[in-house]
Amino acid sequence: MSTFIEQWQEWHANRERELADPYGWLAIVSLEWLSDVPATYPGAPGVWWQDEEAAYVDPRGAELSYEGEPITGVQRFELVNSGAGTRVSAGDVEVEVARRSGYLIRVHSPKAPVLCEFRGVPTYEPDPIWVVTGTFEPFPEPRPTTVGAVTPGLTHVYQAPGVVRFERDGVEHALTAFNGKTGKGLNILFTDATSGVTTYPANRSVLTDEPAADGTVTLDFNRALNLPCAFTDFATCPLPPDGNHLPFEVTAGELLPYERSES
Fold it and tell me: Strand pairing partners for 143?
């Protein structure tokens, strides 16, 4: 038991350090959707626009750099929809470029109020009862799965390799899984009976290692994470797939952030 708690505490400390990154999610101070008309935006030096395939920036005299090299002319960014973004450095801020149906830019500043006032993430106490063994059942082929987003009118499309089934109190539950963010393991978005009460209402996420050869997979709900949208209004996080609601209280993992509960 002591080892279990120590490992969880180490995980939680690493999680809070990650959130305190001076250019991470808590550092976002603005979000702007690009149009096909070149325009300037507060906090983002240069002139920005998009077309159907890519986003563009023209420094127009601003000192911008990309991948360690100065941007001296129009820079093009063609990104995967709902995939990872990329960053442009501009003095002491970074401008993130991302594709969410259309292209957007987000300014990350180490002076962001949310970041400067960050006090950590409240959680339930770790409990081994919430370490659940399930079975991964792969689909014959990964299924493109469309989900909603916390941003009204926006959707995301992810590849779902299969479902994870597990039992609780004699009742079987099935959760659609997406691929893990690093290309390994699974990422499961879910809500439960605590959502909107003690935990963030829109979503939480539990990550797993690669399933074993027999399909066995461990869901550690003690490590259920808030997505970025729980901390900032400048995120476009996905909602869980249809059916990924658990009809019982998952009293484990991260709680509603202090900033949300106090507001």
Answer: 160
Q: Identify whether the C-beta of residue 15 lies closer than 8 Å to the C-beta of residue 7.
A: no
DSSP-assigned letter for residue 124: P
Q: Strand runs (DSSP E) across the chain, as ranges?
A: 28-33, 39-41, 44-50, 55-58, 65-66, 69-70, 75-77, 86-90, 93-100, 102-108, 131-148, 155-168, 171-179, 186-190, 204-208, 216-220
- In this structure, the strands spanning 69-70 and 65-66 are antiparallel
Instruction: Please name the residue that has the structure tokens 């709902």.
Output: 82
Whole-model pTM?
0.89
For residues 159 and 180, give the distance between their C-alpha atoms in angstroms, rounded to a whole number. 10
Query: Average pLDDT for consecutive 10-residue bins of the chain (263 residues)?
Result: 92 96 95 96 95 95 94 95 91 95 95 92 97 96 94 90 95 95 89 97 96 96 96 92 97 92 66
Q: Tokens representing 126?
A: 């770790």
- The residue type of 198 is T
Determine the Cα–Cα distance for residues 78 and 54; give it in Å rounded to an integer. Answer: 4
Question: Which of the 8 DSSP states describes residue 13?
Answer: H
